[in-house]
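step 3/5: co-fold with phosphoenolpyruvate
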Amino acid sequence: MKPLVALNWKMYRSAAQEIAAARQLVELGNYPATLAVFPSFLSLYSITEQLKGSAIELGAQDCAMAAPGAYTGQVAAQSLVELGCRWCIIGHSERRMYLGETDELVVAKVNQALAARLQPIVCVGETAQERAAGVTLAVVEKMLEPVQGKVGLCIAYEPVWAINSGTTPTAQELERALGHIRKIMGAECRVIYGGSISGATASILKEVPSCQGALVGKASLDVQELKKILESMSN
Ligand code: PEP
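step 4/5: write tokens
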């Protein structure tokens, strides 16, 4: 399985900036990795056109918890597929933290995504306090409970304390968490890591046998950083 490098552009840029950045991505060249970009909803339509003929895949940062209907402000999984999305991030810690997303909401979104044949990347991970208390595996296990047994998921282990902090877990900590996730979810489930992966930190993932890719936030905004990440994950 080729490693997945998923670029989470969050809400860093305007739609016009995202469209310009997508042009640079297309010029990146080929790496033995599956590259998927997750722009804001606003630029999905334009970027899907730009990616035509390239191997770069498209994803959304969220989807609705229900099928098309009276849900103001939401975007249906089915509409995302129609737009050319193959992937969808679900349950990112920033949404859990700022919007109060619960595990129940996460599972409803996962069900919608799977029904629409949109591949969910479900984010799980502990806070700094939970890490200090030594309950990382228990926290991850609890977050996975509602989606356990579902086929076709990708799980992103994203410790909340590592996101946008410049620090990552050690290779040993990563293997322990990712190995545990694989044990719970089964060998068919792809397991990736996210949190402060950059050109400088990406090489750690080569030391983690259970890791099958990376979710990259801030560093994915810089094409030079991205090249370094892709190079170190391809070697
Ligand atoms: C993320 O939030 O999904 C992420 C990986 O962020 P960063 O790389 O900026 O830590």
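step 5/5: annotate
The mean pLDDT is 96.
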